[in-house]
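Need tokens for this chain, all 288 residues.
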Amino acid sequence: MTSLAELARPSGGLAMVAMDQRESLRAMLGVHTPTPVPDSDLTKFKLAVATELGTFASGFLIDRAYGFDQVLADRLLPPSCGLILAADRLRHPPEGGPVLDTSIDEEINPVHVRERGVSAMKLLVVWRPDERRDKRLAMAAEFVQRCRSAGLLSILEGVVRPRSDLDFDQLQVEAAAELGSLRPSLYKAQVPRRGVDEVQVGRVCERISGAIPVPWVVLSQGVTIDDFPGAVRTACRAGASGFLAGRAIWSDTLTDPTPLLRARAVDRVKRLAELVDGAARPWQEAAA
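Here are the structure tokens for all 288 residues:
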């Protein structure tokens, strides 16, 4: 059985880049081109991010459809950067927009991908306190067990759909407690209050830390590039072990990826990693 050391920095903090966006990435790329965005453009961008940022990240998350095989075949990631495979199928509304629901990707063989060098798998769970709550929890439990049986780390990403900031705070804590009780290797949470209210962000993060029995990290959805470093620092001081983030690292490099990743995103990852080293709760402590 592997450990979070495969995804961590020497400090015990986690500084990981997410590149598993699919239709949302197509929409982002589509802003900069008048023609429909082909699959090859998604793959090209993901491989550029892996190439330019993998050296500076402790983990890299990608999906099966766009670039996973090439990352392995071309050995784009150094040994210091653990490979994470998204194991979720995403269901979007017909007109596009945020993910409505998810399921486990049955085409992924956990034992096989572990043999190919994958350290962890990730499952996104759209968490709502509705009539399908038990089914989602059962799916998450099955995912954790599949990973455990294959010797893989399991990462559960609980994304809530709030009606207001106050709903968001409470639902985040409930989601963390419920999904964390399944004992995934790592839990991935949204930044409370979109990272703009340091005091409230810290308070909610402390509640998450108190509710969950495993290490956890923040993602960057809904947080601006400028606000994300402060949000990471606040979350880490409140008990988080780092970040697994995409948009706040690379979303302004879409027009000319390689030079812009080098000019902008590399320094962001370096600075965020330094924040994690100084402020994050080491995963070993959080998992004790």
